[in-house]
Amino acid sequence: MLKLQAMLSYGFLENTMTNILLVTSSPRGEDSLSTQTARVFADKLQAAHTGATLTKRDVNADPSPHLAESLVHAIRRPAADRTPEDIAALAHSDSLVGELQAADIIVLASGMINFGVPSALKSWIDHIARSGVTFRYGPDGAEGLLKGKKLYLVLAYGGVYAEGPAQAMNFQEPYLKTLLGFLGLTDVEVVTIEGVAYGPEMAQKAVAAANERVDALVAASAR
Ligand SMILES: Cc1cc2nc3c(=O)[nH]c(=O)nc-3n(C[C@H](O)[C@H](O)[C@H](O)COP(=O)(O)O)c2cc1C
User: Fold this and answer.
1) What count of other Cβ atoms lies within 10 Å of the Cβ of residue 174?
2) Does residue 115 line the site of ligand 1, with CB under 6 A?
């Protein structure tokens, strides 16, 4: 009892709490395979990490506006020179960045649209990639500032891009890995659900394989 009190007073217990952020982005609502799989994934991660919090951000249901001139100016202006209008323009971006900064584990779901990511996810990215906040340039070049976090990408595809000439047409996974890696999220695992446009049997198999991978990743995360 005494030991527990001492741990609480030193904040040891609070510091070990895991914060999970679930970002979903599909425009296909409840039919979305990336959303369904990522939700199960995040719930299982939460169950595996005692006391973990789970924050949900659906960037399609609650979209970030396209970059506007006011936001670009606000982002670029040094913090000390910002006007009240700049601060108001940055409020949404600040809250999205805050969610990422608070997260220890990020589960990000995306389904390929026209060879890339859904436009709602691209808009979210435009709000979270902030020089001096989520990345910076120093003497050694670019440095990501979202460090020490685990990133799980849950990616759905109508086609199959794992091998052959179609690999070069996958602008979803390389883009997300490059961009999020640039922000410091380099510890990444990918769950792929592919070939879902080839009929229900193939889709079912793809989802089953993804769920198996989710279970293996959750088990590894809890160790
Ligand atoms: C508008 C639209 C465009 C799509 N474009 C592609 C594409 O370029 N390549 C592909 O393999 N699948 C494409 N698909 C299929 C989706 O990637 C597939 O349905 C996937 O499951 C979507 O992810 P979700 O289930 O999480 O919504 C497209 C689907 C839609 C609705």
Assistant:
1) 11
2) yes
